[in-house]
Specification:
The structure holds 2 protein chains of 2 kinds.
Chain A (H helix, E strand, L loop, with lengths): L4 H28 L5 H20 L3 H18 L7 H19 L10 H13 L3 H8 L1 E5 L6 E5 H9 L3 E8 H6 L5 H9 L3 E7 L1 H4 L2 H6 L5 E8 L3 H7 L7 E3 L5 H15 L6 H30 L3 H22 E3 L1 H18 L3 E6 L4 E3 H20 L7 E9 L3 E8 L14 H8 L4 E7 L3 E9 L4 E9 L2 E6 L3 E5 L7 E4 L2 E6 L2 E6 L6 H5 L3 E7 L2 E7 L5 E6 L5 H4 L4 E6 L5 E5 L1 H5 L2
Parallel strand pairs in A: 8-10, 15-24, 19-21
Antiparallel strand pairs in A: 1-2, 3-5, 3-6, 4-5, 7-9, 10-11, 11-13, 12-13, 14-15, 14-22, 16-20, 17-18, 18-19, 20-21, 23-24
Helix pairs in contact in A: 1-2, 1-4, 2-3, 3-4, 3-5, 4-5, 4-16, 6-7, 7-13, 14-15, 16-17, 17-18
Chain B lengths: L2 E4 L10 H14 L4 E5 L8 H16 L3 E7 L1 H9 L7 E4 L1
The chains are: A alpha+beta, B alpha/beta.
Chain lengths: 596, 95
C-alpha cells in the first residue's frame, strides 16, 4: 500500500497541531509541580500515542521510534512513577522539538538522527526506576514459541510496560502464504492491519522452514511467521478481528506470570516511595573511601617531604594532587545537555512572550563540562540567541541551532540559523556584554558571516578550567578574591572603636578574642578604622583578619588565569580572574598575607 | 569474494518470482557470487512469495558464507522489512 501525499499532508498538519498542544500542556504540567492534573497528563499521553500510530501507519520509522520513547516517559508520568520536574519536561520538549523537525522533513528523506534525544529519553525511563525495575531494562525474558524451535527475547521492562497498560500478550502463529497471499492480501497491508489491533512487540520468520532457493523448488511453499502482539482485546475478539483460527493464537501467561503478579505489584508498592537511595549511598561510600585514600597519601607524602624535600617527595605530593584534580573534575563534570537545556526553555519563553515562531535545536552529544561553567554559560548564550532572533523579521519561522564539538583541549560551541537564507545581508551583532562573560570563563568568542552559511557565533572554551571558589572583596581601589578554603568568618558593620594597636600590630576585639588585622597597603590605625569588613582567615596555624572596603561579601566561582610577567613579581597575588563585567580581580596569596 | 548487483526493476510478486529465483540461482550457484546486492529501485511492492524469495536467497548465501544486502528500498518496503525483523538476517538500506 502506498500512502498518497494527501494523507501524509493531513498527518503533518494534524501532528504539528498536536505537538503544539502537547508542548503547551507539558509546560502547564511542569508549573503544577507535584500536584499534577492526571487528566492533562493522560491527554498528552494519548495525543503522543496517536502521533506514533500515524507514523507507524505511514511507515515513518524515526518518528515512530521517537514518539514511542516519548510515550514511554509520558506513561511513567501518568502512572505516577515519574514527577514531571523541569528536567523531565525539558527532555520531553527536546524530543518534541526533534519530532517537529522530523515532521518538517518528511518529504525530504533527510536522514536526521534521533540518537541524542533517544539516549536522554531512555535514560529518563531507566533512571527513575527503582533498582529492581532498573534491572528489568537490561534483563531479557525468553518467550518460547509453540513450535519449540524459536524464542522471542524481550527486555522485561517492555513487557512490564505493556502489562501495566492492561494489555494482554499473544503469540500469533501465521503463514504468510495461507494467511496473506492466498487471501489476496499484501504483507504490508496485513502487518498494518495487525498493528491497528495492537502493538507488535516483536516478530520472526522461521527461516529454516522457508529454506534455500533450491529447497523451495522441491517443497510446497510455506512461510511460518510469528508475531508477539500486545493488545487490549480479548483472545476471542482478536481471533475474530484478525480472521484467524483459534489454534493460530496463544496467550502468553506462564512465561511472564512472575512479571504479572510479582513485579507489577512490587512496582506499585514502590511507586509512592522515593527512588531507592541504595545506589546513591554506595556512590557516597566510594567517594568517601577514595577521599580517605587521598588524604592518607597526602599525609604520608607531606610528612616525608618535611624530612626529605627531594624530587621524589615532591613528585609524590604532585601525584596525589593530580588524583584529587581528576576526582574533582569527575565530580563536577556533567553532560552539557543536562544544564544547557535551560537555554531552550529561555528561548521558548521568549518566543511565547514575543509571539514569534522559534525552534531551538541543541546538540551537545556526550560532551561533559564543569557544571559551574555550564551554569554561567546559560545567560550569555541565551542573550546571543535572542539577539540573533531579533535580527530577523518577526513573522518568519526560525530555527536556531546550538552545536557543541570538542577536540583535545577545547570545546567549540557554534550558534547559527538552520535556515541561513533568512539573513540576506551581512550583519554583526553587538556582543560586548556576552564577550565579557565568556572571557571570564577563559573563553573566546567570534562571529562570522557568509552568504551560504549565514551568521555563525563561535565560542571556544578550554576543556578544563581551574575554578577557585572564593569571596570577592574590594580593598582600596582593587578587587580581590579570597579563596573560600581560607575563610572562617566575615565580620561586617564594624565598630571602629574595637580596633586598637597592640605592640606593632593592629588588633580587633571580637567576642573577647583579639584578631590580628592585616591590610595590604598600610598599617596605621586610622587605615584599619576606615574599613567596613573583616574577613577572618586561617592559613596553616595562623589566624588573621583581612580588612576590606566591601559592605557585602560576594561569593564567586572564579576561573583561574595565570599572572602576566608584570604582576608575577607581586608577592601579594597569586593569580588573576576576569569578572563577568570585564574587570579584573586578583587572587590573594594567603600564605604571604599570613606572614606579614 | 565476488560481488554482484541484481536490479529486478519491477514489483517482486508471485507472478515474477519463479523467473527471479531462477536468475538468483544462476548468479549464486553457477556464477559463484557470494556477496549479492538486490537493488529495489523501481520496486514498489513485495508480496509474501516475494518475501520468501529474499529469505531463500539469504539462506542460500549463508550456506556459502555469503551476504545479502537489499539496497534502495522504498519507505514502505524498508518499513515492512524492519517490522518483520528481516533486518536481523540481512542488511537493508533505504533509497
Amino acid at each position: 500500500m502506498l500512502i498518497d501525499s494527501e494523507t501524509t499532508d493531513i498527518y503533518i498538519q494534524e501532528t504539528n497541531q498536536a505537538l503544539a498542544d502537547i508542548e503547551q500542556t507539558l509546560i502547564t504540567i511542569e508549573n503544577m509541580g507535584a500536584n499534577i492534573d492526571m487528566s492533562l497528563a493522560k491527554r498528552v499521553y494519548h495525543a503522543m500515542h496517536v502521533i506514533r500510530s500515524g507514523a507507524s501507519l505511514l511507515s515513518l520509522p524515526k518518528i515512530k521510534e521517537l514518539s514511542q520513547k516519548i510515550e514511554n516517559v509520558l506513561g511513567l508520568i501518568c502512572t505516577n512513577r515519574l514527577t514531571p520536574n523541569p528536567e523531565v519536561i525539558n527532555i520531553l520538549l527536546q524530543g518534541i522539538d526533534r519530532l517537529y523537525l522530523l515532521i518538517d522533513r518528511i518529504h525530504s528523506n533527510d536522514d536526521m538522527d534521533i540518537d541524542e534525544q533517544s539516549v536522554l529519553l531512555t535514560g529518563l525511563t531507566s533512571a527513575v526506576l527503582p533498582d529492581h525495575i532498573k534491572q528489568s531494562v537490561t534483563e531479557v525474558r525468553d518467550i518460547p514459541l509453540p513450535d519449540g524451535k524459536h524464542v522471542f527475547r524481550i527486555p522485561e521492562f517492555n513487557l512490564i510496560q505493556v502489562l501495566e497498560q492492561n494489555k494482554y500478550i499473544y503469540i500469533l502463529i501465521l503463514d504468510l502464504i495461507k494467511d496473506v497471499q492466498e487471501k489476496k492480501k499484501t504483507p504490508f497491508n496485513f502487518v498494518h492491519y495487525i498493528q491497528q489491533h495492537g502493538q507488535i512487540i516483536d516478530s520472526l520468520f522461521d527461516i529454516q522452514t522457508i529454506g534455500t532457493l533450491e529447497e523451495q523448488e522441491l517443497n510446497s511453499e510455506e512461510m511460518p511467521y510469528f508475531v508477539l502482539l500486545a493488545s487490549t482485546l480479548s483472545e476471542n475478539q482478536l481471533t475474530k478481528s484478525l480472521n484467524l483460527q483459534p489454534h493460530q493464537m496463544k496467550q502468553v501467561k506462564i512465561e511472564i506470570s512472575d512479571l504479572i503478579h510479582s513485579k507489577t505489584k512490587q512496582l506499585q508498592q514502590e511507586l509512592t516511595s522515593s527512588i531507592s537511595t541504595k545506589s546513591r549511598k554506595a556512590d557516597n561510600k566510594n567517594r568517601i573511601a577514595f577521599l580517605n585514600d587521598l588524604f592518607c597519601e597526602l599525609k604520608f607524602s607531606t610528612d616525608c617531604l618535611s624530612n626529605d624535600a627531594s624530587s621524589m617527595g615532591i613528585a609524590r605530593v604532585q601525584s596525589a594532587l593530580d588524583k584529587l584534580k581528576y576526582f574533582l573534575r569527575r565530580e563536577n563534570n556533567v553532560l552539557a545537555n543536562r544544564i544547557l537545556w535551560k537555554i531552550g526553555r529561555n528561548i521558548r519563553d521568549h518566543a511565547y512572550q514575543s509571539n514569534i515562531q522559534v525552534k531551538f535545536d541543541i546538540e551537545c552529544g556526550t560532551i561533559k563540562m564543569d557544571q559551574r561553567v555550564l551554569y554561567r554559560m546559560i545567560e550569555p548564550l541565551t542573550d546571543i540567541i535572542i539577539k540573533m532572533i531579533r535580527c530577523v523579521q518577526k513573522n518568519m519561522a526560525l530555527q536556531v541551532c546550538l552545536k557543541m564539538t570538542k577536540n583535545e583541549e577545547t570545546i567549540k560551541i557554534s550558534v547559527f540559523f538552520a535556515n541561513p537564507e533568512l539573513l540576506t545581508q551581512e550583519m554583526r551583532l553587538p556582543l560586548d556584554e556576552e564577550e565579557k562573560k565568556f572571557h571570564a570563563l577563559s573563553a573566546e568568542i567570534e562571529q562570522s558571516f557568509d552568504i551560504k552559511a549565514g551568521l555563525n557565533i563561535l565560542i571556544r572554551i578550554p576543556k578544563n578550567v581551574f575554578i577557585i571558589p572564593g569571596f570577592l572583596i574590594r580593598i582600596d581601589a582593587h578587587q580581590y578574591i579570597v579563596p573560600k578554603v581560607n575563610v572562617i568568618e566575615c565580620l561586617t558593620n564594624l565598630n571602629p572603636l574595637k580596633c586598637s594597636k597592640v605592640d606593632s600590630s593592629i588588633v580587633f576585639n571580637h567576642n573577647d578574642n583579639c584578631i590580628r588585622l592585616v591590610g595590604i597597603a598600610n598599617n596605621d590605625l586610622a587605615y584599619y578604622q576606615q574599613k567596613h569588613t573583616i574577613i577572618v582567615c586561617e592559613v596553616g596555624n595562623k589566624c588573621f583578619g583581612l580588612v576590606s572596603d566591601s559592605l557585602t561579601i560576594v561569593e564567586i566561582d572564579a576561573v583561574y588565569q595565570p599572572l602576566g610577567k608584570q604582576l608575577d613579581a607581586n608577592p601579594l597575588i597569586i593569580a588573576n580572574c576576569l569578572l563577568d563585567d570585564g574587570q579584573i580581580a586578583f587572587v590573594l596569596d594567603m600564605g604571604y598575607l599570613a606572614n606579614i | 569474494m565476488s560481488k554482484k548487483v541484481i536490479s529486478p526493476g519491477q514489483d517482486i510478486v508471485a507472478s515474477m518470482v519463479p523467473e527471479f529465483k531462477k536468475r538468483l540461482q544462476e548468479v549464486i550457484i553457477e556464477e559463484g557470487i557470494t556477496e549479492l546486492d538486490i537493488d529495489l529501485t523501481g520496486v514498489e511492492m513485495v508480496d509474501s512469495v516475494g518475501l520468501g524469495a529474499f529469505i531463500a536467497t539469504h539462506n542460500t548465501l549463508s550456506q556459502k558464507n555469503g551476504k545479502l544486502t537489499v539496497i534502495n528500498a522504498s519507505n514502505d518496503i524498508y518499513s515492512l522489512f524492519k517490522t518483520m525483523r528481516l533486518d536481523q538476517h540481512f542488511e537493508i538500506n533505504q533509497g
